[in-house]
Amino acid sequence: MTDAHDKPVPATADRKERRDPRTVAMLVSGLLAIVLGAVAVLLPVPYVVEAPGPAINTIGESQGAPLIQIKGRESFPADGSLSLTTVYVYGGPGDAVSFFDVARAWLDPAKAVLPVELVYPPGTTGQEIQEQNAAAMTSSQDAAVAAALEHEDIDFGQELVVIDFAEESVSASILEPEDVLLEINGQPIEDLDFLRTALNESDGEPVTMTVERDGGKQQVEIAPSESEDGQFQLGVYLRTDFSFPFSVNIALNNVGGPSAGMMFALGIIDKLEAGDLTGGREFAGTGTISVDGLVGPIGGIQQKMVGARDAGAEFFLAPSENCEEVTGHVPEGLTVVKVSTLDQAHDAVKKLASDPDASVSSCTG
Fold first, then answer.
1. In sequence order, what are the residues at sequence separation of 6 or more whose Cβ sits closer than 8 angstroms to the Cβ of residue 195?
2. Of 349, 363, 257, nearest in space to 300 by CA
3. What is the dihedral of CA 288, 289, 290, 294, to 10 degrees?
4. Which of 109, 198, 258, 358 has the least C-beta neighbours within 10 A?
5. Domain boundaries, the chain
């Protein structure tokens, strides 16, 4: 009789292969890490990537026609380049970037990575961004024409029109949208600076405004309010409507924002003046422009300098208020000129056109 404990197991019996629990756990953890890593790389992240964009010659051609076209006044052909510079922006509302995109940008010195909230206000939609950029481009072109004509001592007209009211505005119950501001205390309102000066001189006392409304003129009285910085104001948002003595058309598509204003103005001046402002040399630059010729700061200037140099520019005109971002980041072979006004930019181009080694103002002294 055989002991049951010694009974052999039949060769045909099923057997389950035993796995080490630690091995199974390691395999599962590894697969999970791979999946999570892939998801992390591909998921959108709250960053914006800025990269160098193309440089576009304002005195050149676009789609076979001059980018700047002047009708109703004699204009002149121009050689060389006065290029506006651009930045490709990836990320933000409606155009999210992945961690992989951001990681590659971090490794590229020509690109910048910024938190999305530093670039776009919370709640902004992609459609709103496009509309804002298009409006800013149109406004900058009008301001560029006005600044160029001011530089050339060519008269033009401008009117300030009410478009909206600030919160708790002192004018909300007195003025109306589309009111044209004609006079303040009997003096014609020449421009926005004139209006600001007159309001500050009132020291808060009521002013008499003459406005054009529905085709007629009306007089209203408004007591300006004082802002936190001590300035007196009407509490209105205004647009400037210009009337120019001739037509200036800028044919540029798919570029938005106000930063091309100064280069547009220089291009218009070069078209209006006989001879070549650039002397055939390659200039690029960036900066907003006001009607009175003030050059304002912009974003992405480091990427714009790279784009300018890649396009063959020798000289780059930079707003003085961007100097901190310029210093230490100038591409090799590019000379950067610091400017605060359109007149300074014009004079610098003219000077360097005749002598590329001439001494000019820079961000380093």
1. 160, 181, 184, 189
2. 257
3. 100
4. 109
5. 51-93+126-154+244-354, 157-243
As a whole number of angstroms, the distance between CA 352 and CA 335 comes to: 10
Mean pLDDT of 221-238: 94
Q: Which two tokens stand for residue 140?
A: 């900058």
Burial class (CB in 10 A: 0-12, 13-18, 19+), 338: buried
CATH code of the domain made up of 157-243: 2.30.42.10
Q: Where are the alpha helices (DSSP H) in the chain?
A: 21-42, 99-106, 116-119, 126-151, 192-202, 261-272, 301-310, 323-326, 342-354
Between CA 350 and CA 338 the distance in angstroms is: 14
pTM of the predicted protein model: 0.82
**Is 261 a residue whose pLDDT tops 70?**
yes
Instruction: Using the predicted structure, report yes or no on whether residue 10 has a pLDDT greater than 80.
Output: no
The token pair that represents 153 in the structure block: 């001592």
Tens of pLDDT, residue by residue over 162-186, are: 999 999 999 999 999 999 999 999 9
Q: Which residue has the tokens 């060519």?
A: 154
Task: Indicate the helix (H) or strand (E) that contains 317.
Answer: strand 315-319
Residue 304: the pLDDT is 98
Strands 216-222 and 295-296: unpaired
CB distance 76 to 103 below 8 Å = no
CATH number of 51-93+126-154+244-354: 3.30.230.10
| Residue 150 three-state SS | helix
Encoded tokens for 39: 């998801």
The better pLDDT of the pair 122, 269 is held by: 269
Tell me the pLDDT tens digit for each residue of 290-346.
999 999 999 999 999 999 999 999 999 999 999 999 999 999 999 999 999 999 999
